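re: that chain from earlier
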Amino acid sequence: MTELAVPPGPLALRRNARVGYAMVIGAALLFSVNGVVSKIALQESGIGADRWTQLRTTGTFVGLALALTLVAPGRLRIGRRELAAIAVYGMIGFSLVQWLYFVAIERLPIGIALLLEFTAPLLVALWARFVWHEPVRRRVWVAIALVLGGLALVAQIWDGLTLDGLGVAAAITAAVALAAFWLAGERLVARRDPLSLVCLGMGWGALFWAATRPWWSFPFDALTIEAALPGGLDTNAPVWSLAVWTIVLGTIAPYVLHVGALRHLSATTLGIVATIEPVVASVVAWAWLGETLVAVQIAGGGVVLAGIFLAETSRRSSGAT
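^ sequence. v structure.
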C-alpha cells in the first residue's frame, strides 16, 4: 500500500524533514500550554466549551484574515473546486475537534483527554484497511491490542471505570475528527499555503458557530472576570487575556506550524511526532494545575503510545518521509 497520495502542486516540493519535526514539536508545546490556559478559563469564567471554541475559532480567523488582507490578499482567493473540501475541513478540524477537546478537558485530566484523542493514528490505519481496502502491516493488530490494553489501565476498569463517561466519549469522538483532519490536511496543503488554509478553515468554523450560537447571546461579561492562576503564581488575570493567549499562541501559531509541517512530513510521520503532546501536556498540567496520574495510569499511557507508534507505522509507504 502506498502512503496517502499527495496530488502534485506548486507547494509539494522542497521537503525538509528536520524543519517538519521542529514545527510539529513547537506546535505540540504550544498546544499543551494552551490546554492548561483554556481549562483555567473554562473553570473560572463559566463560559461553556462551545462558546470558548467559538471565541477561539472566530478570533483566529479575524486575526489571520486581517494579516493576509494587508500583506498578501491574493492568498485568500478560493476556487470552486476546493470550496467544499475546505468547508468540511474547517468545520471538522477547527470546530468539532476543538469543541470536543474542550468538553473532554473540562471532565478529564488533560493528559488523559489527549491520550484518548491521539488514538487517531489507529483509526487512520483501520480506515485504510477496512474502508479503502489497502494492505496494512500485521503490526496493526498488535497496535490495537496495545491501545485497548493501555486504555484499560488508564481508565482503571477494575474499579468500575473511574473516568467521566461524557469526557471519554468526547475525547474518543475528537480522535475520529482528528484522523479526518490529518488526512484531509495532507491533501489540501499540497495546493495551498498553510497560513491561508488555516485562515479559510477557521473562517468556515466561525460561520458554523455563528449560525448555531448567535453572537448576540454570547456572555461577554464573563470575559471581564478575574481568573485565579494556580501553580504558585499567586496572581489573577482577566479571562479576556486568557482568550487572547488562546487565539494567538494557542491557536494561530501552533495550527500554522502543524499544518505547515505537512509540507515536509507525511500525515503518518506527523502523527508519530505529535504523540509527544499528551506527554508534554501531562507534565504542564502537573506543574501548573497539580493534576496527577497514578502509577498504573502512567504505565497505561506508555502502552497506548507504543500502540499508537505501531499503528502509525502499519500503513505501507512508498517512500514518503
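The chain is about 70% helix and 0% strand.
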